[in-house]
Amino acid sequence: MPRPRFLDPTDRGLSQLGQEILPVLYRHRLLTASQLTQLLRPAATSTRYVRRQLEVLHGRGMVDASVRRTSRAGELLWYTTALGCEVVETGGELAPRPYRMTEDAAASQLQEHTLAVNELGLAFVQHARRLGDECGPLDWDPEVAHRVRDGDSRLGDEAVLVPDAVLRYIHTTPAGNGGQQRMLLTFFCEIDRATMSIARLAAKLHAYARYARYVPQPAPGRGRPKAAGGYRREAWRARYPSFPRVLLVLDGASQRQLAKRADDLRALAAADTRLQPAATDLQAAVTTLEQLRVHGPFAPIVTPVLGDTEPTDVLLRPSAAATSVA
138 Cβ partners below 8 Å, 6+ apart? Predict the structure, then answer.
């Protein structure tokens, strides 16, 4: 896949790699030099060239770094400064985001969660390369808000669903006459680093179920808006061609402990009568970040949260959550 050009090559005298680093840092908030190397220069045998470009960007005030809290070796985590954000936003290649990483946020306890979300995206990117699919460094968005209920947005989780990431992936399979079929798969991704109660994690499924069926109501005095077919439609249809699959990814503990958490999550979901109607609307599955890294997203490493009990390749099974793009 050709590397996208995010900025004019002569803009501020940045190298091609420097121009690629800025938007990726802007989008994903906090990345290590190793993650950036794997995303942007996968053939490189070391992080030296990426680190050199980061130093150049740092010298020009466009990026800064914080020390990773869990690293004894003082590993640096990189993010765009206010100036770096302005450079990216001026380039017009990415939609501006209201959230900007700050020095305090970069040094906070959210470091590992942010890095884990990006490890999830990196796993998809690496396996897309191996399979000949399409998923690039900018193909996941962190914390995209989705309204799931009418009313005051200050209700927080009751009114707004915010997945850890929304990821898009184009899977290619052989078709008749030597052609190819390209399928767009969209995922709502949630990362749990064994810091959240299983009850709270299970409760997130309710938010996804609400979003799957949420139809916005008209504002008072404005009548009842209708879609082109003469009826109101679910809110998600304005953003996605089909309802995204929900992928719950566990990390932060031993594989044995994570397997138990997955079993407990499934048991809670199975016992929750309010979730049973959602089984027809949600394609939700659970796996671990380690399995995702090692085996890729389409190996039989994911277990449906509602329904079957055995790990499967459910993420590739045909469903309404896949949309043909060719």
Answer: 4, 23, 24, 27, 94
